[in-house]
Design a protein that fits this description.
Chain lengths: 497, 492
């Protein structure tokens, strides 16, 4: 890629640069994300593609590359790739070609990986990444192609031998290649999170990084702002947001130090050592494999019609960017709240159920502050939460019709959160209904005033501050159930304020 | 009683149906012939017990009236086809002890039709060769000898075990595979019929891959009718092979009407190569006259890119082979020679497992696919391939079939060309273009050379027009009346 093709993703803004001994450095990052396609079967064989299973339990004759075995494309996996391409606003190529990438390794039974080299199924697209300062970074997608995963080598099962588990061999992957539009470690993780969100909305990848469903190769280089691009190093196969951030930060500092000492960067592939927190050289450009790509003669070119693509497009869900815009316009939410709510599809759906026919801002507040706060603290997710959207909605209704005060509502929510149940039932069962009967409130006030004539005199003498003390006493005597507004009004009336 | 093994497949089929003899009797006759024929080294693995079991089952079905189209017919299988529970070697050391848990689609079709498996036939290692001399299991001998000479001759390759076994009467017919002529050239060298179908006509599933875009399974038999009968069973769409074509299988036997009136037969100028023996040139002309006498029209045509076919083939085929053979790494099956580390285990296993010709082609293939060479070699070869396919397309606008010699020479002596790989490659000069273009081709025995060796004529047809190819071949066969048989010198 030439320098001219790298557009200035910073739009001329300064800031966010790394500072070295010789001044500021700009960090240039491109990512290749391997996302495992959610599918029942593998890309070219009928074996199950699920995670787990006993070693070598999900292996067909094709996956083990027995002599004479042939790949047959899984149409569903192709549809998933197209669906993803549509979700990335990318060009869908009606004709693409599978190539063989040749290299030897025991977890690669065929001796080649079937991938797409020259003609990928999906071309250019983009991902819009919301930045914490409210801005948006548009990361251009170069391509998305289909390929097979390799098996897994196990080096810790035998003193002198390695074992190979081929369960993953042949599982369908999408490799999503970005242009070098990312400018910081933080942006890199935000990009990956956004990509993950989109894939999860589309249902094309479960985004489970711990199980290896998403892994990233990161290309990192640095340059003086405005200067031509520096030489890049590729950090291979990182599968956690934290390590991505650490690896980029380490690598950027390493490159800056070398350059500032007058050295030069050698293009190479590096590994991130999670224990030491550093990257180290895996192989140089000279040692890099010659993969001898050529079109796989066992497979015909992948061809489908625009009508087939259009059918897939019709089934596309509302995607996070569109949903966020709608949440802002239809519900009047802030950009910040909206982006939190759309971060995953389940939360967004949950919020909309709660908000339906209710005060949307209040619903957003409750979902974000109360529910999310509690979920985070308890290490739960919206799927494992005991509070259903319908129940939370009814709780908000009780708040709206003044059955509950804000404080009482929080108490009820805590009960719902820890042991489930319906808010009305909890209110009835525990007698938490707010007292809105003016007579009862008056009586309670009168009792407190009668018992504390000195305090009454002080208020009447001008010590308005003591009103708060009266509110507290009445609340105490009513078990916290008095409607705070009515109580306040009644007190002021009594004192003629 | 004449020897049962003298019957053609069609005659044997009819005899079995009429219960003139049993499938077991027929199979036993062949098993006896195989034992006598062992000096020819046609079989890598004989499966007599399985053959008798299958024959007995055939007899039961014949008695019950549920016979399949090949019921009780004893066949040999080129050992490139994986056969369930039977050693499958590709004639390579690297597949030592490999017993598949699966059956290739083509052989499964044969057994489902009632055929009996006699054993696995020898071949060039991984089907790479034109003389059957590259087999780890030793060369196959051609049952034919030159007049007055006892020199050992090659049976052609790579389906040399198949061709020799059929010519020597060790099996009724056999499967072959043809990547650059591996069915037609050995058929020509041994006086039998061999058909390479259109690419995609027969499933490749379960056949050890040599060059995926060129490999095609096909029948080899004593005559055209037997070939047609066999093809009808072998052919068909297979969802497990993405390159197999979903197209109805015609009744090929019914296509043998003997009527070629008005058929346009092309004679390509470019197939007159320098140094071709006079006898072959003469037979080619004779073949054209026979067809003309039967009512066909002979038309001179041009296939201008023919001379680029062989170089293109020797880039494309090794390129694909270098990748296809990467799976033989000593890790999961076959030979493993352990070294001090992974790399050394790879090197030792593949070093010991592959023979010289296979190594040569892996090296060529790896080279032509390397960075910086891909465009100059592989991509250009693919362009040549398109040009050759276009040559045929244009020719088939004018003609219905094309007549050529099958090979530029008759069978040569064992060891004669071992130091001359290019000379060996040149043997495929007439057969390779059909593989590059994916069109069907057949070799029919048409006469004997001056020193008494069989010579074949090749007919090439339009894609999926095996019917015309077979019909024309039938006419050629009838006119040639090739009845010569090798003397059974190996029985002494």
């Amino acid at each position: 890629m030439s320098v001219q093709e790298i557009y200035d993703a910073r739009h001329g803004e300064k800031g966010g640069y790394l500072t070295g001994a010789t001044g500021e450095w700009e960090l240039i990052i491109g990512m290749e994300v391997h996302a495992q396609i959610s599918s029942k079967a593998k890309l070219f064989s009928g074996s199950p593609a699920d995670f787990g299973g006993e070693p070598n339990e999900h292996v067909s004759l094709v996956d083990a590359a027995m002599p004479g075995m042939l790949p047959v494309i899984n149409e569903f996996c192709v549809a998933q790739a197209v669906r993803t391409g549509l979700g990335l606003n990318a060009q869908i190529n009606l004709r693409s070609v599978f190539d063989r990438k040749n290299y030897f390794y025991p977890d690669l039974p065929q001796g080649y990986q079937i991938s797409q080299f020259t003609y990928p199924v999906v071309g250019r697209g983009e991902v819009r990444v919301d930045l914490p300062d409210g801005g948006v970074r548009v990361v251009r997608i170069e391509r998305l192609h289909l390929e097979q995963d390799a098996g897994k080598s196990l080096h810790d099962q035998h003193p002198s031998m390695s074992y190979v588990d081929l369960n993953r061999s042949g599982v369908a992957l999408m490799e999503i290649v970005s242009q070098p539009d990312i400018r910081s470690a933080e942006e890199a993780t935000l990009y990956l999170e956004k990509l993950r969100t989109i894939l999860r909305y589309l249902g094309t990848c479960d985004g489970n990084m711990q199980e290896g469903s998403m892994r990233a190769d990161i290309n990192v280089s640095v340059r003086k702002p405005g200067r031509p691009l520096g030489t890049r190093c590729e950090i291979k196969n990182i599968n956690s947001m934290r390590f991505i951030r650490q690896a980029i930060e380490y690598e950027a500092r390493r490159q800056i130090e070398i350059l500032e000492e007058g050295g030069s960067i050698h293009q190479e592939t590096r590994l991130y050592d999670q224990v030491k927190g550093e990257t180290r050289s895996m192989r140089s450009k000279e040692e890099s494999h010659d993969y001898r790509y050529f079109p796989d003669p066992d497979l015909l070119p992948l061809e489908f019609t625009q009508a087939w693509v259009d059918d897939i497009a019709k089934g596309l869900p509302e995607l996070p960017d569109a949903k966020k815009a709608r949440f802002m316009s239809a519900y009047g939410l802030s950009a910040y709240d909206a982006s939190i709510l759309v971060a995953d599809r389940e939360t967004a759906e949950y919020f909309e159920q709660v908000a339906k026919g209710r005060d949307a801002k209040m619903a957003a507040n409750w979902v974000i502050t109360n529910l999310y706060g509690a979920l985070n603290e308890a290490g739960l997710t919206i799927q494992t939460s005991l509070v259903s959207a319908a129940a939370l909605g009814r709780l908000l209704d009780l708040l709206a019709d003044q059955t509950l005060s804000g404080r009482l509502a929080k108490d009820v929510f805590e009960i719902m959160f820890s042991s489930g149940g319906d808010p009305e039932a909890i209110v009835l069962e525990r007698g938490l209904k707010q007292v809105t009967d003016t007579g009862a409130i008056d009586a309670a006030i009168d009792a407190v005033m009668a018992a504390n004539p000195d305090k009454v005199a002080e208020v009447k003498g001008g010590k308005d501050r003591l009103l708060g003390w009266f509110v507290g006493q009445v609340m105490k005597s009513t078990g916290g159930k008095a409607n705070p507004q009515m109580l306040n009004d009644a007190l002021r009336q009594k004192f003629g304020l | 009683m004449t020897d049962m093994t003298d019957l053609s497949l069609a005659e044997a089929r009819d005899g079995l149906r009429a219960r003139r003899f049993s499938a077991l009797e027929l199979t036993d006759a062949y098993l006896a012939a195989m034992t006598a024929g062992q000096p020819l080294n046609c079989f890598i693995t004989e499966t007599p017990d399985r053959a008798r079991d299958m024959a007995r089952a055939s007899d039961t079905r014949l008695a019950a009236g549920t016979a399949g189209p090949l019921e009780g017919i004893p066949l040999g299988v080129k050992d490139l086809f994986c056969t369930k529970d039977v050693l499958s070697t590709a004639a390579s050391h690297i597949l030592d002890g490999f017993i598949p848990a699966y059956e290739s689609t083509v052989t499964a079709n044969l057994w489902n039709a009632g055929a009996v498996m006699l054993g696995k036939l020898n071949l060039d290692e991984f089907a790479m060769g034109s003389s059957n001399e590259t087999s780890y299991y030793g060369p196959v001998l051609n049952p034919w000898r030159r007049t007055g000479d006892t020199a050992k001759l090659v049976p052609g390759g790579s389906s040399g075990g198949s061709s020799a076994a059929i010519a020597a009467g060790l099996c009724l017919a056999a499967t072959g595979t043809d990547t650059g002529g591996s069915i037609r050239q050995p058929a020509a060298f041994t006086g039998i019929v061999g058909l390479k179908p259109t690419y995609g006509r027969c499933s490749r599933w379960g056949i050890v891959a040599f060059a995926s875009s060129l490999d095609q399974a096909g029948p080899m038999a004593r005559n055209v009718r037997d070939t047609a009968i066999l093809l009808a069973v072998m052919a068909g769409h297979d969802p497990k092979d993405s390159t197999s074509v979903d197209r109805a299988v015609p009744d090929y036997e019914a296509a043998l009407t003997g009527n070629i009136k008005g058929l346009r037969v092309g004679i390509p100028a470019e197939y007159r190569v320098d140094g071709m023996p006079q006898g072959i040139e003469a037979m080619w002309r004779q073949g054209a006259r026979w067809l003309q006498d039967a009512g066909a029209e002979i038309i001179e045509i041009s296939l201008p890119h023919t001379r680029y076919a062989l170089p293109a083939y020797y880039i494309v085929a090794p390129a694909e082979a270098s990748s296809n053979l990467a799976r033989y790494d000593g890790m999961r099956y076959g030979l493993r020679v352990t070294g001090k580390d992974l790399t050394e285990t790879y090197e030792r296993s593949r070093g010991a497992g592959f023979g010289a010709e296979v190594k040569r082609r892996i090296l060529i293939g790896t080279y032509v696919l390397s960075a910086g060479y891909y465009d100059a070699y592989y991509l250009r070869a693919q362009r040549v391939r398109t040009l050759i396919a276009n040559d045929f397309k244009a020719a088939f606008e004018i003609v219905d079939v094309i007549l050529t010699p099958s090979t530029p020479t008759p069978a040569f002596a064992l060891g004669e060309r071992n130091d001359d790989p290019i000379g060996m490659f040149l043997n495929d000069v007439f057969t390779v273009p059909a593989n590059l273009a994916g069109i069907p081709g057949i070799s029919v025995p048409a006469g004997l050379s001056e020193d008494g060796l069989p010579l074949g004529l090749q007919l090439l047809g339009k894609a999926f027009d095996e019917e015309t190819v077979l019909r024309t071949a039938g006419v050629l066969e009838g006119a040639a009346a090739f009845t010569a048989r090798p003397a059974q010198w190996w029985r002494t």
